[in-house]
Amino acid sequence: MSTQSTPAPEPEASNLQPGTPEAPSRLRRHTLPASEFRCLTVDHARGVFEIEREAFISVLGTCPLYLDEVKHFLTLCPELSLGWFQEGCLIAFIIGSLWDQERLTQESLTLHRPGGHTAHLHVLAVHHACRHQGKGSTLMRRYLQHLGGQPAVSRAALMCEDRLVPFYQGFGFSPVGPCAITLGPLAFTELQCSMRGHASRRRNSGC
């Protein structure tokens, strides 16, 4: 069972796994961009899941998205994802999908509704070696700019624990009440953000 709660700004993440690009110190700097934001593909699913699993299992005992669900969304709507790569290594990411109702529901955890105008942010995670460096904040700003360049998206929505509400309010999200989705004893607040004013600046982006 998965929960699509949006994590702490910079949760723990796993070591780079086989199939994930090599550590920066082993890469040839003249062949790879030092820092790059671009949409993810299904080929990134394994690396995404390893970062996510390390970040969430110790905190929630589960993952927002399991591997099959990561592959599902990166196949259906890769344009609603954004990865941050440094010298070829994935260090942070956000995965989203479209939703077509006013509020998030249990179905929104696993469905992508192409006719929807709400980008549901399922998960934000940062590699453990890159935590406490402001990367979660930087990625969120870039993601909202990215969404602002997609005409079909009029707002973003997410669910988080109460302690994280102030963090997301800093990006223009406003609480709309308790989320209908719970996980055992855990309850979440739903937040929404209008895309008005979030102009797209997709420089250095492969989306």
TrEMBL record:
Cellular localization per UniProt: Cytoplasm
What's one GO BP annotation on this UniProt entry?
response to light stimulus
Taxonomic path: Eukaryota, Metazoa, Chordata, Craniata, Vertebrata
- The entry's protein name is Serotonin N-acetyltransferase
Q: Which UniProt keywords apply?
A: Acyltransferase, Biological rhythms, Cytoplasm, Melatonin biosynthesis, Phosphoprotein, Transferase
What family is this? Belongs to the acetyltransferase family. AANAT subfamily.
Q: Is Metal-binding one of the keywords UniProt gives this record?
A: no
Using the record for this protein, list the coiled-coil segments as residue ranges, or answer none.
none
- Source organism of this protein record: Enhydra lutris kenyoni (northern sea otter)
- EC annotation? 2.3.1.87
* UniProt cross-references to InterPro entries, sorted A to Z: Acyl_CoA_acyltransferase, GNAT_dom, SNAT-like
User: What coarse category fits the chief subcellular location reported for this protein?
Assistant: cytoplasm
Q: Which Pfam family is an annotated match for this chain, by its short name?
A: Acetyltransf_1
**Record field: transmembrane:** none
Its biological function? Controls the night/day rhythm of melatonin production in the pineal gland. Catalyzes the N-acetylation of serotonin into N-acetylserotonin, the penultimate step in the synthesis of melatonin.
A GO cellular component term found in this entry reads:
cytoplasm
Ranges where the N-acetyltransferase domain occurs? 35-196
What reaction gets catalysed by this protein? a 2-arylethylamine + acetyl-CoA = an N-acetyl-2-arylethylamine + CoA + H(+)
Note whether Lipid biosynthesis occurs among the keywords.
no
The biological pathway it contributes to is:
Aromatic compound metabolism; melatonin biosynthesis; melatonin from serotonin: step 1/2
**Single GO MF descriptor:** aralkylamine N-acetyltransferase activity
Residues covered by region (Disordered): 1-26
